[in-house]
Amino acid sequence: MAVEKQVVIITEAAAFRIKEMMEHNEEQGAFLRVGVNGGGCSGLTYGMSFTTEKNDDDILDNQHGLEIVVAGEDAPILAGTKIDYKQSLMGGGFTIDNPNAIANCGCGTSFKAAARPAEPQPCE
């Protein structure tokens, strides 16, 4: 049975952009899945995707009208992580601030966390 709890913090700007992407991809009503995958030069990478499935161990949350799911095994690594969307003259993009990351790679796409050791991979 899924548990309701806040793991990640989605800013209003990020939620607005995610909802725009959902509409563009005709994914209204889907969950936003936030997770951690192995890979990158520091060992772990973030993942965000749309899904209609939720698993028994998922943690559910609703922020700014956005339904968010996080796998139970990823929750300790993502606890307190803030996801924002910033727009600049060069374009826009999501930023992720994870208080559990003990190191970030130079290219900015992967991180290392004490809670889940992972094997670093070559940068692409």
TrEMBL record:
Pfam family, one: Fe-S_biosyn
Domain of life: Bacteria
Signal peptide: none
Name the record gives this protein: Core domain-containing protein
GO biological processes: iron-sulfur cluster assembly
Entry GO MF terms: 2 iron, 2 sulfur cluster binding; 4 iron, 4 sulfur cluster binding; iron ion binding
Entry-linked PANTHER family: IRON-SULFUR CLUSTER ASSEMBLY 2 HOMOLOG, MITOCHONDRIAL
Protein's organism: Caryophanon tenue
InterPro entries in alphabetical order: ATAP (IPR016092), ATAP_core_dom (IPR000361), FeS_cluster_insertion_CS (IPR017870), HesB-like_dom_sf (IPR035903)
Domain Core positions: 10-108
